[in-house]
Amino acid sequence: xxxxxxxxxxxxxxxxxxxxxxxxxxxxxxxxxxxxxxxxxxxxxxxxxxxxxxxxxxxxxxxxxxxxxxxxxxxxxxxxxxxxxxxxxxxxxxxxxxxxxxxxxxxxxxxxxxxxxxxxxxxxxxxxxxxxxxxxxxxxxxxxxxxxxxxxxxxxxxxxxxxxxxxxxxxxxxxxxxxxxxxxxxxxxxxxxxxxxxxxxxxxxxxxxxxxxxxxxxx
Length: 219
Description:
Elements: H1 3-28, H2 34-46, H3 50-69, H4 74-98, H5 107-131, H6 137-148, H7 153-176, H8 184-218
Helix pairs in contact: 1-4, 1-5, 1-8, 2-3, 2-7, 3-4, 3-6, 5-8, 6-7
């Protein structure tokens, strides 16, 4: 298996784990991560599937990139759109699989679902970033914000998350008179996913990198 095939496998598995983690957090019912809060808010208020609203949210993130950059890069945005459709499909598929199991009813079980979702999302991010293939629109937008406003990426990420959560919360309050997609789980995810990823990367990124590029080194 060549290097590009391995990178693609790692990328797709990473996206699948990301979607599975978000679906577990939805099932927990304690609030989803900031990245998915807008898509889930639209799903709750509009009656659309989470997969479709994920695609719609990502299209919005692409449009904002175009407005900020004041240019349209067809190839880059086409790839982002394809990735958005793939991730949207994974969201519907993984939520369907998760909902086959009994919904957690007690706070202990719901909290367990939330904790598991954090680790699954972190593993997904590990594979997704290690593959070094095109970023999803939300992450690409964060880089654009970072460059446009001369911010460190970490600060741009915080600002992006805060805006996403605020808009999602406003949509839920206006249409369903509750915070809907926003909850304690949103705050927990915002703080701990980065921490867990920071713990996982020194342990697993090097082995994954070696697996991807071992043929290239051998040659």
